[in-house]
Amino acid sequence: MEQPPLLCRLFLFSTLVVLGCTSWIQFVASHQESGDWHCEADEESRVVAEFRPGLVTLDGHADDWENIDGFEFSLLPALDPDHDHEYKGGKMTLKALHDGKDVYFLLQVDGDYLYKKGNDKNCPSVALMFQVGESATYHNMGGCKQSPDACNNKTCRGYEVDIMHFSIGNAIPGRLYGGNPIDNRDGNGGDRFGHLVDLYAWNPHCQNLDGVSPTGNDTAAQNDWRGAWWHSSFATHSGYSDEDSPYSTNGQKGTFYFEFSRALRTMDRLQQDVQFTIGQTSKFSAAFWYPEDGNPWHGSGHYTISCDWVPLDVPPGLSAGVKVVSRSSWNAASGFAFLLSIVSFGVSIFVGYLVHKKNAISFQPIDL
Ligand SMILES: *[C@@H]1O[C@H](CO)[C@@H](O)[C@H](O)[C@H]1NC(C)=O
Ligand SMILES: *[C@@H]1O[C@H](CO)[C@@H](O)[C@H](O)[C@H]1NC(C)=O
């Protein structure tokens, strides 16, 4: 039997897409911390990394993200999430998407331009943190109770978190940093060029570059992250180089942009990378450091988007949505498609007949 005509197939496809979309939304209860630590996380907050292939370029520019929904968060001090001490510059807008292979993040924060070349702590900085081990808490970066000389992959098993930290003091805006052949040849999560590093931790005192550990280094590790940064006060969209530093005038009003990507899955064998699965939810957080009142920031002086993990959904693409549709509506739809295809088959025979007939009459051999 011949295929249903194109229009009919399009109609069928769009019907299924609409039906499929409605069944994607799923809710996951947020978990509570216990003990002295006081946290009232917004249980509604979550970030969705939609399936949108071929939309964004990893260059620090945000214009290609324009049609992607953003998720807005207040930035509260990580160690004391009190609204009175909120970051004064504004909120953080987070956007995420995936293309079936890589996941992309855009972090957007309003802030007066500040840059001091070669001095990370006098420049803004951002980090992402993900739960790896099932027991890993947001609070205390995994929350393993071991001291720095006792934490290792056995005593802290299950408390692993994965961290990406970008300090821009040596990173030229719009240029790509993170995983590079030189550091990856050494087999660790470092980035000697732009300090966009791939770390893991069991608690704040037990943090290491991927591949580096208290009980010995494993050179199978890699820096799996890539990223770039930008500020809205920059006048040029052509390439900057090192000599253009500080790229803009300090104190200019505007917005900082930090854009990152990573493969959904990595070759990590050490439980140091989060692994994303399409159709599943990961837990993460984002942090922001800003040199306030002219003072350099320090490691624990950062703001975060929540005092607990924020769910990150990685939903499937369209074709997987079609599969979710129930049997009965599939049967009704294919019955309709079959009917239409019979009608169109009949029409095509009739048209064929007309053409044939017309040809039979009008064909005139030319005599020379
Ligand atoms: C592991 O790597 C770190 C960082 O590269 C280095 O400082 C340390 O000496 C290495 N340890 C061993 C045992 O090789
Ligand atoms: C722990 O790390 C060491 C290297 O430091 C490695 O040899 C060992 O296989 C790791 N153990 C586990 C359970 O991952």
From TrEMBL:
<keyword id="KW-0349">Heme</keyword>
<protein>
    <recommendedName>
        <fullName>Cytochrome c-552/DMSO reductase-like haem-binding domain-containing protein</fullName>
    </recommendedName>
</protein>
<keyword id="KW-0479">Metal-binding</keyword>
<keyword id="KW-0812">Transmembrane</keyword>
<keyword id="KW-0249">Electron transport</keyword>
<feature type="domain" description="Cytochrome c-552/DMSO reductase-like haem-binding">
    <location>
        <begin position="62"/>
        <end position="304"/>
    </location>
</feature>
<dbReference type="GO" id="GO:0020037">
    <property type="term" value="F:heme binding"/>
</dbReference>
<dbReference type="GO" id="GO:0046872">
    <property type="term" value="F:metal ion binding"/>
</dbReference>
<keyword id="KW-0472">Membrane</keyword>
<feature type="transmembrane region" description="Helical">
    <location>
        <begin position="336"/>
        <end position="355"/>
    </location>
</feature>
<dbReference type="Pfam" id="PF09459">
    <property type="entry name" value="EB_dh"/>
</dbReference>
<keyword id="KW-0813">Transport</keyword>
<keyword id="KW-1133">Transmembrane helix</keyword>
<dbReference type="InterPro" id="IPR019020">
    <property type="entry name" value="Cyt-c552/DMSO_Rdtase_haem-bd"/>
</dbReference>
<keyword id="KW-0732">Signal</keyword>
<keyword id="KW-0408">Iron</keyword>
<feature type="signal peptide">
    <location>
        <begin position="1"/>
        <end position="30"/>
    </location>
</feature>
